[in-house]
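Per your request, structure below.
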């Protein structure tokens, strides 16, 4: 699955209504341009694509009195909200070694109720264990990965990555069960997006034609 869709929907949802440049700014604020394929072109493309698919409603906004082209503001439709929550749940449980999908899901995990987040993370740990036993049964020789030559290090890396993921996820479960963070239905959520005009210290400053649409 693509992390871009989840990131874009998550940003728009937090704003209520947002134009493309705001979404791009948020994703750079989250560092997503470093750990995912969330570059300006793919962000603007995802917005247009999801508007066509009925996941976002595009509002045409008249240009300001100081001039400049009109902007499009996006808002999640009912279908968009359903798709967003489906992607969050899928991303938290799936184990596919992709950091961008997992990172995107973590950025919006608090949009779920606390108990559901814990339950999904437990399912993630279970699936990692399942994946590990399936691959090690066939690929890891008893004498260690060296028996497969340097190619054995590939599987060695994957198994170590899986173990680290499982350990880290278990720690996150414990922190959430211990009362960390504000989840859906628990009160005022943490604001993780930038307000209009707020300075983004992590902005790349790279110009893109879609910035004004």
């Amino acid at each position: 699955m693509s992390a871009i869709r989840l990131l874009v929907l998550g940003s728009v949802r937090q704003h209520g209504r947002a134009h493309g440049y705001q979404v791009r700014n948020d994703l750079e604020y989250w560092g997503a341009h470093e750990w995912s394929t969330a570059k300006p072109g793919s962000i603007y493309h995802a917005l247009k694509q999801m508007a066509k698919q009925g996941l976002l409603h595009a509002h045409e906004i008249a240009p300001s009195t100081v001039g400049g082209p009109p902007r499009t503001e996006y808002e999640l439709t009912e279908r968009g909200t359903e798709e967003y929550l489906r992607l969050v749940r899928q991303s938290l449980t799936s184990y596919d070694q992709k950091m961008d999908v997992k990172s995107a899901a973590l950025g919006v995990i608090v949009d779920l109720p606390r108990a559901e987040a814990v339950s999904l993370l437990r399912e993630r740990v279970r699936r990692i264990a399942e994946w590990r036993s399936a691959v090690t049964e066939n690929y890891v020789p008893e004498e260690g990965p060296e028996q497969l030559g340097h190619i054995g290090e590939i599987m060695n890396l994957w198994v170590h990555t899986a173990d680290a993921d499982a350990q880290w996820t278990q720690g996150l479960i414990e922190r959430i069960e211990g009362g960390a963070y504000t989840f859906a239905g628990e009160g005022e959520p943490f604001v993780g997006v930038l307000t209009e005009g707020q300075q983004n210290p992590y902005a790349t400053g790279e110009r893109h034609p879609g910035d004004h649409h």
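The mean pLDDT is 85.

Regards,
D.
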